[in-house]
Amino acid sequence: MPRKPLKLRNSISAEHYRIIPVYDKEAWNIIAKLWNEQNNLLTERKFGNEPRDYLLFDGLTVSMFYGDVVKAFEKAKLPFRSPHKLRHAFLTAFYAATNESRFLARKVAGHNEERSMAIYSHIGEQIALEQTQKKQSQKKMKIV
């Protein structure tokens, strides 16, 4: 699969990287193994001198990825959501969990514009309000 720059970026470069936090130990070990394999291939110069030619998930196609996401939703008995929607759900929760840290939001989301990050704050506020309203509507009324 040909690589391309992130959305709204002119080139693939270190300054445009995104940081993805990995909390699951098993997932981390899989990623670490793949990274080490590609790093060894780079050291051997198997595919040339350019680090960008050594892909972490070499062989993964979009259809394979979507198929696995569909299966995960089916197994969890949840309605399907696209990976892009999952990204936004994660970022909204992450933004709230980090006390709306602008620095971390920029690093994880890859957003440089304040407007983009403000969306996650606004969505988080809406979710909190809806949860509060739901809790209040479930309370019993006092009989006087």
Q: How would you spell out the order of helices and strands?
A: HHHHH
Q: Level of helix content?
A: 55-70%
Q: Which class best fits the helix and strand makeup?
A: mainly alpha
> What's the overall geometry?
elongated
Extended strand count: 0
Alpha-carbon distance between the two ends: 69 Å
* Average predicted local confidence, pLDDT: 79
How would you characterize this protein structure?
It is a single chain. With 144 residues, this protein is mostly helical. Helices cover 58% and strands 0% of the residues. The N and C termini lie far apart (69 Å). The mean pLDDT is 79.
Describe the structure in brief.
Helices cover 58% and strands 0% of the residues. It contains five helices and no strands.
What's the arrangement of secondary structure elements?
Layout: H1 25-44, H2 62-76, H3 83-97, H4 102-109, H5 114-138
Helix pairs in contact: 3-5
Descriptive key words:
mainly alpha, 144 residues, 5 helices, 58% helix, 0% strand
